[in-house]
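Support request, priority: normal
Reporter: lab tech (M.K.)
Component: structure prediction queue

Hi team, I submitted a job for Zinc-dependent peptidase from Flavobacterium urumqiense yesterday, and the status page still shows it as pending. I've pasted the exact input below so you can check whether something in the sequence is tripping the parser. The sequence length should be 269 residues. Please let me know if I need to resubmit or if it's stuck on your end.
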Amino acid sequence: MSLQFFISVLFGTLFLLLLIFKVVEPAYVLLFNKPLYIHWYPFYKKLRSSQRQILINDFPFYNRLSPKRKMYFEHRVIEFIANYQFTGKEIFITEDMQILIAGTYVMLTFGMRNYLIRLFDKIIIYPSSYFSTVNQAYHKGEFNPKMKAIVFSWEDFLIGHSASNDNINLGLHEFSHVLHFHCLKSNDPSAIIFFDEFKEVIKYYTDPNLNAILTQKGYFRLYAYGNQFEFLSVILEHLFETPHVFKTTHPELYTHTAAMINFNEEYFK
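Reply from support: The job had stalled in the queue. We restarted it manually and it finished. Here are the results:
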């Protein structure tokens, strides 16, 4: 193979990729409201059997996935743990902690292509509720953009994780805040879809008539109505914890919320 031929092939490939991402994918997103592709990994990274068992024991979402999508899920868990620093404050960081936190994040972002967000680079864990210097109060968890940190009370993280149908999940809640901030600033296809659907979702918070319907039915806890950020995080908790109830109670809002993160029931077939 001559150098000239190699260069022509290389430039042809680059042009084709540019065409796909600049022309084909925007059209695809417009037509189907989802990225052209979600998962593509040249080399899959696999969890050890003991690590995989944690997912099997603690994540119904993972257990319902097809074998192929379970591979995607595991790969993303490994990548998450490799890309973010875990720090314990008066608590020792265990492998179980890492897998449970990573699994929660991967579950939330499973329908999005660019899942490794750079708005945070560390996860700080306290044994229980901790005193936050942000507002001089005790917290169970928070997203601190200045520190680029997600902070959890491990006690409260476990409570939220172990009760899978009470619509309160600290991990999902705090990671939802990060995802919200990221998608307001990013222009990747998943973020664009998120932002477009968020504009529809937030109408249920800002529109008095739609808001009245939500409060009348009482499906979402009162904490959701504090501000738009908490509203989004609470409805995403409901999407994962009681999706069938959500879909039955508020079908239109469910559709927009699921589309926002490309939450697709086809994942489980």
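Residues 49-268 form one domain. The mean pLDDT is 88. Let us know if anything else looks off. Ticket resolved.
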